[in-house]
histidine kinase (Arthrobacter wenxiniae), 571 residues
Amino acid sequence: MRKSACFVRFPQRAPRPGRGQVPVSGISSAHAARGRHRSLTLTTQILLSMLSLLLLAVVLGAFLFTVVSNQTLDRQYQLRALGIATTTAAMPQLRSALAAGDPQHIIPSLAAGIVAAANPSYVVVTDRNGIRYSHPNPALIGKKLEEPVAVLDGKTHLGFDPGSLGLSANAKAPVFGADGAVIGEVSVGILDTRERDEQASNIWLIAGFSALVLCLSVAGSLLLSRRIKRVTFNLEPAEIAFLLQEREALLHGIREAVVGLDDDGRVTVINEEARRLLKVEETALGMPVSDLVPDGRLRELLTGELDGADQVALTEDALLVVNRMPVSIGGRSIGSVVTLRDRTEIEGLVRDLHSVQGLMEAMRALEHEYANRLYVVDGLLELGDVDQARTYVSAISASSRSLGEGLRSRIAPPELAALLLAKITVAAEQDVHIEVTAGSRLERPLVDQAELLTIVGNLLDNAVDALANSPRPRTVAVQLDDADGVFIAVRDNGPGVPADKIDAVVVDGYSTKDTRPGMRRGIGLALVRRIVRRAGGTLDVFPGPGGNFEVWLPARADMGDPAGTEARETQ
């Protein structure tokens, strides 16, 4: 039983297809499998995956931003404190008061003014011995620092100072006297609490931005999942995998050859049977079909240059029936599907069957003819004219015997002689006279007999068909010669082949005759050409009037050539 399949996937909804196009259909098998797969949906998987990745990215980004931001703020506060400290240390009033021991106690008021103007957390002024001249806590004024004065080296110092007020970003600048010696120190600090408040505001900004990114990511994930679902025809991943497995099993499990082509003529799908018939490798996927198939009718059918249902194409080994169907989705062409069926054996059987039917019709006609002759003999015997009856029977017998004996005496292969006799008999019933020319001889089997029978039979069938509408007399002359290989010539007195059709008549699928039911036309001469080309011979077609076909086949080495052997021995 013939199996067939379609491997192209289509969406569930689409416009009504145009004539000659593959319609869009639902994918019922994949949806039927939906009940067998209860995993997370594609939308959920995409959403969870993207959220996980984005959440990880946002957390890492927020952490890195916070660390970098804190380091930047620390540095900014230290530099700000340094600017205030160096500016304060350079004030003439401060320098002179500190050099004199601040008898008028103006340093605390100067420090308070700087705190009010520049807004640091504190400004502490000490002499080179560490005695405080200003401090936010008045009780500590006049007290000595717990740690030594850091700026005695004449340089500024930055850092974080735990101090009596708490951790702060601190900068210390030296105060120079009139002689350039260090006479004291200005320590300016910005408490860590103020910095942390600014950092907290940055964290809230980061959190808000992260939340916005997550919301946009969720929306993008939903849109992306919907897009993917639409592109994949609303199928889940498990359904896509099931459908792919089903398609592969179906595509490679059918007898027909299937080739899928895109709009550029590149192979997108090809099954094992197609690889066998077209003789291509697995690397054919993605290649242009014009690079895989030689120039000729088969390539034209595959590429769509020739159109039509059940078109015939011949390869070196097979007779193929080709069908090409354009495929469109949503009114947009996406390529075509080509199916090929190997009809070599079936076509041979069909042609043999038609030959048998022709012989049966000829035998039926001969039956009537011989019945009439028997009636004549019976009538002569009834009249008592025995001698006349004997003479009549002898004449009939001699006529039939002479035809068969004449063929057997000149045509050594019995199969070929039988074929010629059958063709002569069948043609006679169509009022066509086939004559084997007087000089014809074929005494040695120099070529394959099956190929020889195919060539002679097809040439004779073509000649008889060409005479169907010709006026009487209708004759076909057959010439056979084995002097140098095998020479076959078939000539008729029909209309012949027009000069502009000489190349076309030997192309598979070309025919000017009406097709009988069950019979494919345009194959006979193409088969002859294929056999001749494979054997290394020649096929010549001459223009009309009158059909004229000549074939030459070289003698096969394994069958010998007695004439050639004798000539060589003589030399």
